[in-house]
């Protein structure tokens, strides 16, 4: 069976990367812009991965096979 643990684990990794990106961005006039861009990029990548992962675990439509017609 599938588990929610990979989703939570990757979330914690992404949150850790966001904290590091917040701390390690050098001071300057564009510091806020760089921090925002990095955090939005990480959050968007995580959301895309999570939606794709969950869609594969729980598909909305079950696959079906059309009958093969012979001529």
The radius of gyration computed from the alpha-carbon positions, rounded to a whole number of angstroms, is: 20 Å
Report the portion of residues in β strands. Answer: under 5%
Distance separating the two termini:
42 Å
Counted by DSSP, the helix tally is: 2
Number of strands: 0
How much helix, percentage-wise, in residues? 55-70%
In the predicted model, the low-confidence regions spanning at least 5 consecutive residues are none
Kindly name the structural category.
Answer: mainly alpha
* H and E string: HH
Shape: elongated
- Taken together, the total number of domains comes to 1
Mean pLDDT: 90
InterPro entries: ATPase_V0-cplx_e1/e2_su
Keywords: Hydrogen ion transport, Ion transport, Membrane, Transmembrane, Transmembrane helix, Transport
Protein name: V-type proton ATPase subunit
Membrane topology: Multi-pass membrane protein
Features:
single chain, proton-transporting ATPase activity, rotational mechanism, 71 residues, membrane, mainly alpha, V-type proton ATPase subunit
